[in-house]
Structure prediction request, 286 residues.
Amino acid sequence: MELILSLVTKFIIYSIFLISLNNLMIGKSGYWAIGHICFFYIGAVVTGILSVIYHFSASLIYLTFFIAPLISSVIAFLLSVSTSRLKGDFFMFISISIAILCNVAAEYIAGPSGFSGINRPAGLTSDISILSVSIVFFILTIIYVKNFNRHPLNRIYSLTRTSEKSAMSFGINVLRNNVKIFILSSIIASISGILFAFYSTGTDPQRFSLNEAVILFALSIIGGIDSIKGSIIAAIFYVLVIYLLDSLFSGVSDIYATKIASLVFGLILILAIKYKPNGLFGKRKI
Prediction:
């Protein structure tokens, strides 16, 4: 029962993150943001700083749900404005660099082992309560994305993603719209990081590495661009594969498990591009 609870909680948390990446960041803006995992990290590390370094009480630690998204939105704003002229491979290279910087920052701030002993908020001290809150955020995220997809603004993003010049010729403020989606997706990603930190009561630097960033990015593409169902299936697959690898390589260095995970997901991505160019549930080609 404890194992099932752990897997389900992680699946819900990673689903929230992958929806922010796949259905908002990639799906709406068209930016292939491999470094999106940094916002997940911000949520987790801010939780660790407030709990471990500043010793916030069980009541005050709820402020994490305000502080971390605020920091993420500011950083997302700065990144979106500074990279507004970059698209395609150029943006991807910048995004990879950001992911590397986040990994270095994770080890510098929290140490090579990350934060441990993070206090959970009052009323959320049990695993089942963390799962319940995660499910609430998960449902709210899905509802928001589905409503967004039905909103006329979604057509504007579709036009912008296809051709920014065409969008600007219709008087659409492309930069403003991209800034909005950067900020929105970063807020949701940071919330998933907060939930991860509260559940695990720690921050594992391995979960913020470039390998993890590439794996999660690849899985979101495999599931299908801008597909909620694809994001959910990708999260399930990720959690199960990581669990199996951790079980097979228990007692062995995490580096081997990480390298094998990268190999497995890399092969799956190659096969997906060859045989399922739209992903499992996507409508647009990879």
Notes: The CA atoms of residues 136 and 160 lie 32 Å apart. The chain has a mean pLDDT of 87. Residues 13-208 form one domain.
